[in-house]
Amino acid sequence: MTSSSTFRPVLERIAEEIERTPGRGRPADYIPALAACDPRSFGMAVAEPDGTVYGVGEWRRPFSAQSITKVFTLALVLAREGDALWGHVGREPSGNPFNSLVQLEYENGIPRNPFINAGALVVTDRLHTRTGDASGELLSFLRAESGNQDLTFDKEVAASESAHGDRNAALGHFMASYGNIDNPVPVLLDQYFRQCSIAASCADLALATAFLARHGIRADGTRLLTLSQAKQINAIMLTCGTYDAAGDFAYRVGLPGKSGVGGGIIAVVPGRCTLCVWSPGLDERGNSVAGVAALDRFTTLTGLSVF
């Protein structure tokens, strides 16, 4: 096990190794606003439960959080609905691409888990029903947990996703036909695209994720989730957080994690720290090539893992 004082040299060593690594994948090109990112950009931050944060590279540079936000929306809904949520979305790995329609018909409009797009749409829909402004509720939460009041939506990214959002619209309408969506699909899609467009840095997201390392306790000391609920979210991150590469991620990294096609990945060491790494070059399954490699090295060098 490592002590807090050794995090900084570990991060510096990882950054040096990543810098020497060729082949970093390609940025997401189906969202034009993300396609221009330099795949060799890299940042990494680690936050301790007390709010201390360390970083290397471009760890203060905001990037498009994309599907990383699904973790926080899930936490906000689970805190409000408890186990009733699981009547609307499952907890199993999908084994299919994150935007697949195939399983929904077999499973009567109930998405396989909260982190594929269909499941995230259900979760956002339920948060919107309970709050009247799902994306605004999420943004307020992220600002509070990160301590950064400047976090906001990237209107260009949201507009870009909306213009290329036919598959998500299809998912929404299909689930609505089974009665699993409460709100009008266009309203839901607007909320969902705004949610995914939030721009945040590695420091912001490492800090915002720390409630999962604190077993459900928010930055202000109040409890958002029960111990059991925090465990549930960490478990679903481990088994479903990197789409159909979750088994490989668990094998290599050994931590609950959640990736986004903006190139970010968050990861949790319960009781010890949270991490966020960003590098926009993706593999064929939508996960950051350098990000996975960096987290692999972190757990190898520190011995910090859930296994």
Description:
The protein is of the alpha+beta class and 307 residues long. Helices cover 46% and strands 10% of the residues. It contains 14 helices and 8 strands. The protein has helices at residues 7-19, 32-35, 69-81, 102-106, 117-131, 134-146, 155-163, 166-177, 185-196, 202-208, 210-213, 227-240, 246-252, 289-302, and strands spanning 43-47, 53-57, 63-64, 152-153, 198-200, 257-259, 264-269, 273-278. It has a 5-stranded antiparallel beta sheet. Strands 3-5-4 form a 3-stranded antiparallel beta sheet. The relative contact order is 0.20. The model has no long low-confidence stretch (mean pLDDT 94).
Key structural traits:
about 300 residues; 14 helices; 5-stranded antiparallel sheet; 3-stranded antiparallel sheet
What's the helix count? Answer: 14
> What is the helix fraction of residues, given as a range?
40-55%
Instruction: State mean pLDDT (0 to 100 scale).
Output: 94
Oligomeric state of the chains in view: single chain
**Using only CA atoms, what is the Rg?**
18 Å
Low-confidence stretches are none
Structural class: alpha+beta
Largest sheet: 5 strands, antiparallel
